[in-house]
């Protein structure tokens, strides 16, 4: 049963979450241009949560074309500061500016998951976490980024909460799985409902 599940993501964090939960699955990285998808829906009045869901669906549909009959899990996460959606920093200077921007403020992580089979969307969910960064000294930001290195560029917020990035925060509202990028409990519940995993 569960060997018919495909994770439409190149993320090692999402792969580890599903593997740690005991799922058997394949992994296939989607081949979509996320910025092009965003541009196509620009001006449509979408929320950052809507955008995460649209991107997750686009990834799942792309991968589903290569895996007929299989249940494909598409995921995406947006970071919103008020209504602005931020993207992964391109370099360490942009990572530094990102942490300065988030310093002392509350931002939102919107983690979307979509299930698709043969081009049909079966289910969608967006988990939300709110994270408040403490006021960060610019010197500390420089030292922090020097310590974590290029890992800062793999996350939209320029931090990894599961590592040293936890030191940047004073308050977190939301579950760990949503923060890392996959609302795991609702997903597992739906997979059980669909008979895709034992339960």
Protein architecture, described:
- The protein is an alpha/beta fold.
- The chain has one domain (2-193): Maf protein.
- The chain has seven helices and seven strands.
- Strand 1 (5-8), helix 1 (12-20) and strand 2 form a beta-alpha-beta unit.
- Helix 4 (92-102) crosses helix 5.
- The protein is globular and about 55 Å long.
- The protein starts with a strand and ends in a 6-residue tail after the last helix.
- The mean pLDDT is 94.
Labels describing this entry:
Maf protein, 35% helix, single chain, globular, nucleotide metabolism, 7 strands, 199 residues, alpha/beta, 7-stranded mixed beta sheet, 7 helices, 7-methyl-GTP pyrophosphatase
What is the residue-averaged pLDDT? 94
- Which CATH class? Alpha Beta
As a percent range, the share of strand residues is 25-35%
Cα gyration radius (Å): 17 Å
Distance between the termini: 12 Å
CATH topology: Maf protein
Q: SS-based structural class?
A: alpha/beta
Into how many domains do the coordinates divide? 1
Q: List unreliable stretches of 5+ residues.
A: none
How many beta-strand runs? Answer: 7
CATH architecture: Alpha-Beta Complex
Keywords: Cytoplasm, Hydrolase, Nucleotide metabolism
EC number: 3.6.1.-
Cofactor: a divalent metal cation
Main location: cytoplasm
């Amino acid at each position: 049963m569960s060997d018919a599940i495909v994770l439409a993501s190149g993320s090692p964090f999402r792969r580890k979450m599903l593997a740690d939960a005991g799922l058997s699955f394949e992994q296939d990285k989607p081949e979509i241009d996320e910025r092009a998808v965003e541009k196509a829906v620009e001006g449509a009045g979408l929320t950052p949560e809507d955008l995460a869901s649209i991107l997750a669906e686009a990834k799942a549909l792309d991968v589903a074309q290569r895996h007929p009959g299989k249940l494909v899990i598409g995921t995406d996460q947006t970071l919103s500061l008020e209504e602005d959606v931020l993207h992964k920093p391109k370099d360490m200077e942009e990572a530094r500016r990102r942490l300065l921007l988030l310093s002392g403020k509350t931002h939102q992580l919107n983690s979307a998951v979509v299930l698709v089979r043969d081009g049909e969307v079966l289910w969608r969910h967006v988990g939300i976490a709110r994270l408040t960064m403490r006021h960060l000294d610019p010197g500390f930001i420089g030292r922090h980024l020097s310590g974590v290195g290029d890992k800062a560029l793999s996350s939209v917020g320029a931090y990894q909460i599961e590592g040293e990035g936890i030191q940047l925060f004073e308050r977190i509202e939301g579950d760990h799985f949503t923060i890392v990028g996959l609302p795991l409990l609702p997903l597992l519940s739906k997979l059980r409902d669909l008979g895709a995993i034992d339960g």
